[in-house]
Amino acid sequence: MRQYIPRHYPSVFFSGLSLLLAMILMLSPTAVQSQSASATGRLEGIVTDSTGAAVPGADVTVRNQNTGISTTLRSGAEGDFTFLYLDPGTYEVSIQKAGFNKLVLKDITVTVGTRAIIHPQLAVGRIETTVSVSATTPLVDTSESSLGTVVDQQSIESLPLNGRNFTDFALLTPGATTDGDFGMISFNGVAGNFNNYTVDGGNNNNAFFAQQVGRTIPFQFSEDVIREFEVTSTGFEAEFGQAGGGLVNTVTKSGTNQVHGDTYYYILDSSTSANDKINEGQGIAKPHNRRQQFGGTVAGPLIHDRLFYLGNYEGQVRNEPLTVNDGPAVNGLPSDFFANNPGLAAQALPTFRF
Question: What pLDDT shows up at residue 44?
Fold first, then answer.
């Protein structure tokens, strides 16, 4: 028999630091950044002059355009430089050395699990002269042998998603398909139990069920706090491990120097959909089903260019029928029983034909 049981699934996410860590950050002379390689990207390149010769000892500064956090190093003997552990985002790179014009490259995108490669070229001149260029990173990372796809923030915010479970976006990547009826994903034909899920560099797998934590209801993270994630189906590095199928490497959002907030409400109701043909053929009324998802997010700076916060709340209220398949209570009923009792038909829906 069907019963209508409202279920409320709250989900609270807070991205911040403890009071002790906050005090350490405030007292620290330099900004502290995440050091998890799996949740970050990298930026590298070679500084050259107008003739193509390497420029060693150039000061290279990378600044996150959203948070203002920056770091500086000098190019090596071959003009090379590498910035590790950069949080995904948009960066500005400035390069200067005595005898050359200062070069500023803006809008360089760094994504999770990948590397951005740039080729800055300095022109001879006075250091007081600054040349600003809007740079773009290549769409294909030629330095990686793995087969992976980054689902970025624009896709997550723009594409419609029934149920708001962000990992469903992984189905847009090559080689991915559904595995069963409970939300698992198969990569290249391998069962979904063999995938590996990470969030901000941490393990996000349920060892008992061999599945993602919060894979069904309620899922662990709201779609609203996901910045981007990388889906790798083959050839990923040994640091990730424990995956015979695919890897879903997720990064959550961080606060920025700008205060930002949003609220949302989504509803799925059976009153807006039609009854299916099997029910109509058996004279069974359309069952009642309603799902409501609502919440909000707020983010901003605690200390400008140094410490940020992001908080999110999401709730779900679901009124959904419970189905008994081939229950003893409905065995042996006349074929016209549900047609003559439409009120009961909306509560008990056998999955077999009389």
Answer: 94
- CATH code where residue 45 lies: 2.60.40.1120
Strands 147-151 and 226-234 come out as antiparallel
Distance in angstroms (rounded) separating the CA atoms of residues 54 and 46:
7
Please provide the DSSP assignment of 295-327 as one string.
EEEEEEEEETTTEEEEEEEEEEEEEE----TT-
| CA 101/CA 126 separation, integer angstroms | 5
Q: Bridge partners of 94? A: 61, 104
Structure tokens at 287: 């069952």
SS3 131: strand
Quick: pLDDT tens for 201-222.
Answer: 888 888 777 677 766 555 678 8
C-alpha span between 318 and 268 (Å, rounded): 9
Q: Do the beta carbons of residue 146 and residue 174 sit within 8 Å?
A: no
Domain span at residue 215 reads 147-252
Name the token pair of 118: 């740039």
For residue 159, being part of any structural domain is answered with yes
In a domain, 216, yes or no: yes
* Cα–Cα dist 142/154, whole Å: 23
Q: Model confidence over 40-83: pLDDT tens digits?
A: 899 999 999 999 999 999 999 999 999 999 999 999 999 999 99
**Model confidence over 75-85: pLDDT tens digits?**
999 999 999 99
